[in-house]
Amino acid sequence: MFEARKQEVLAKVNELQGLIEKTWGFRIPNLTIRFDLKGCSAGQAGRRDDQYFMRVNATLMMNEGWDHIINNTVPHEMAHLACYVRPMLGRNHDSGWQRVCLALGGNGKRCHSEAAEPSRKVRRYAYIASCGTVVTLTQVRHNKILRGASFRLRNTGGRLDRTCSYRQVA
Predict the structure, then answer these.
(1) Would you kindly state where each structural domain of the chain is located, as residue ranges?
(2) What pLDDT score does 60 carry?
(3) Residue environment code for 110-142, b if the CB has 16+ CB neighbours within 10 A, otherwise e
(4) Is the CATH code 3.30.2010 the one for domain 2-103?
(5) 10-residue averages of pLDDT along the chain (170 residues)
């Protein structure tokens, strides 16, 4: 089943390559499709030098997220690739990119709502700032505080540093 869906994704990419060529007069060169994405993202597009790539979340592809992958994720990522090749079309998730995404048959939305498991389990810590506000921090910021960094809360002006009490919450 995985191979069949993989072939459908590749066929959809070829179909969208033709649509991009017909609509804007170019093809995405040196395009590689990989099925190695994990976590909550349905897809990812990028470029390195003159190499363009698309990554697809194989777990979502094999579960209830299949319709979304084929009908929205692939057009979404192809819109990014088209905008990388021709930046005047749009960038990131702006209105230009959205027009390209819609023209390719996607829904033009930035994020998906399919159920997905995060690939990383992040520890979180509840800190009590100097002003009394309880703030939840991830392991990265917690480690910085343990090494001597301090942070100021924008809304209250309270400080987070080594002297603040904390406890692990997740």
Answers:
(1) 2-103, 124-168
(2) 82
(3) eebebebeeeeeeeebebebbeeeebebeeebb
(4) yes
(5) 91 96 95 90 90 92 82 94 96 94 92 60 89 92 94 92 89
**pLDDT for the residue 93:** 93
What DSSP state is assigned to residue 7?
H
pLDDT at 117: 62
Angle between helices 74-85 and 95-103 (to 10 degrees): 120
Give the SS3 label for residue 86: coil
Q: How many CB atoms lie within 10 A of CB 165?
A: 7
Residue position matching structure tokens 């400080």: 159
Instruction: Give the pLDDT confidence score for residue 145 in this predicted structure.
Output: 95
Report in angstroms the alpha-carbon separations of 11 from 33, 57, 74, 92, 129: 11, 17, 11, 25, 54
> DSSP per residue over 108-170, as a string?
--S--------SSPPPEEEEE-TTS-EEEEEHHHHHHHHTT--EE-TTT--EESTTS-EEE--
